[in-house]
Specification:
Length: about 110
C-alpha cells in the first residue's frame, strides 16, 4: 500500500499506509490525522479536507477539476498547491506523497 505523509501546521509529521483506490482524505480519517475534518464525507461539497500538496508532488497529483476549484474558494489560505484531499485518489505511483494541512479548515 502507498504511504502518505501528512504534516500539520506545527510541523508534526505522520506517515500512514493508504489503500489504493481510496482518497487522501479517507486515509486521513481512517488514521485520525488531525487537521482533516471532512464534514461532507468526501462529496466535494465543502472545503474541510483542504491540504497543500508538496511542490515535488504537484505534477504527479495533477490539477484540481473545476468543481474542486469552486469549493477551494471556501478554504482558508488557498495557495497554488492547494487541493481538496477528497479529490486525490491514492494510486501506487503516489507512494511517498507529502501533504500539509493548513492552520485551520475553511
Amino acid at each position: 500500500m502507498p504511504n502518505i505523509t501528512y504534516i500539520d501546521a506545527h510541523g508534526e509529521s505522520r506517515t500512514v499506509e493508504a489503500e489504493t483506490g481510496s482518497t487522501v482524505m479517507e486515509a486521513a480519517i481512517r488514521n485520525a490525522i488531525p487537521g482533516i475534518e471532512a464534514e461532507c464525507g468526501g462529496a466535494c461539497a465543502c472545503a474541510t479536507c483542504h491540504v497543500y500538496v508538496d511542490e515535488a508532488w504537484m505534477e504527479k497529483v495533477g490539477q484540481a477539476e473545476p468543481m474542486e476549484e469552486d469549493m477551494l474558494d471556501f478554504a482558508f489560505d488557498v495557495r497554488p498547491n492547494s487541493r481538496l484531499s477528497c479529490q486525490i485518489r491514492v494510486r501506487p505511483d503516489l507512494d511517498g506523497l507529502v501533504v500539509r494541512t493548513p492552520a485551520r479548515q475553511g
